[in-house]
What does this fold into?
Amino acid sequence: MNTVITGLQWGDEGKGKIVDYLTETADVVIRGQGGNNAGHTVIAKGTKYVLHLLPSGILWDNKINVIGNGVVLDPIGLVSEISRIESQGISITPEKLLISDRAHVVLPFHKELDAAREISLGDQKIGTTKRGIGPTYADKINRCGIRMADLLNRPFAEAQITKRTLEVNEILSKFELPTFTPEQVISETFAAFERLASHVTNTIPILHKAWKDGKSLLFEGAQGTLLDIDFGTYPFVTSSNTTAGGSTTGTGLPPTAIQEVIGVCKAYTTRVGSGPFPTGDEGLSDYLHNLGREFGATTGRPRGCGWLDTVLLRFACMVNGVTGLAVTNLDGLDEYEELKICVAYDVDGSRHDLPPADRSAWDRATPIYVSLPGWKQDTTSCTTYDDLPPNAKAYLKKFSELCGAPITFVGVGPDRVQTIKV
Ligand code: GDP
Ligand code: IMO
Ligand code: MG
It folds into this structure.
């Protein structure tokens, strides 16, 4: 069984935890999009690991982890992540981690361009992670990017990097931002690339062989559907297809290789960065932040929190072809008296069951809620669906009906073992 794990909200749904949990029965874990804007937290055997570019299967021995062609890879960021994870006792060998030679490289100036663009947007800024993701994908689409394979041919890479650095310097100068010398970009990039070179390979035939040999493949999504460049709350999105389709274009495995799409979503909604958030709720945000929850793994920013929004989830289930929902953080609602679920939006008096494309409509969207009683009971030690309080089961039933997909996993705590298989 080959399975896509995809985020159904604005990221941080708990994809890393679900991927780690499912890796036990998988052979290969593959990232196909995004970069180190992702922050996936996994807690296993009492240790917390935060992963940005490394697939969440890396914590298990004898599993192959692949960074696919659709990922934008910051060599400096990846090397520091590898040393951090290695210092936590996890070995990262070329047999265990494969990097696609087609993956595009995030260069130091991409991060500066990301910052420059945010400055120029003023109060319309996207609130990016400033990891250079947008500018690297822009160079890829604009056909002036550098790929991992290019770095294997140093003279060629040096010429390409020099050309692009000089072009980018013109833009940076306009913003009175520091410019780069080509030598600096080349030396910083190659210093990091040295650690990575032995991992770089043509991952596509390797993945196809694994598929043909009947190995179990797990595709790890980054970000979430509402951050997808096509389906998200544009322009407040990231720069890749975060939805299930990104798993094929970003890995070289075809749609026919996939049997199952698990959509990961929180039992409520969160979002970090700018953009519309109809069900955002200050009371719920304060409540969860006071519990020490909902701070970003990549930037440490507090995440905005709000009620469950099934307008978004219904759409996300459609565009991803979700076959099962993994609902995480149910325990976050344990103490709440009354829970609201958004079933539709009212926009200027008309009802919307799906999110609008018109960005101005988002500002006028008022959620239409139903309310359900809370369960006021600790769920963190529940190990089966039957252990859950009746009101929690009623909440999940309504959740599933409104989204039109069955619930297959429920998360009741951050630890690997706090995952209930339904
Ligand atoms: P990802 O980016 O989708 O992998 O999600 P993040 O790791 O950025 O954010 C999810 C947060 O929720 C992390 O702090 C996880 O440790 C935590 N988490 C995941 N599932 C659960 C759950 O079921 N209960 C609790 N309490 N925390 C969870
Ligand atoms: P994971 O994989 C939550 C958000 C940023 C910003 C927008 C664009 O951990 O779920 P970018 O740096 O990508 O250009 O920023 O996307 N964002 C995320 N929010 N989780 C993520 O990843 C995110 N990656 C990007 O906050 O709003
Ligand atoms: Mg995250």
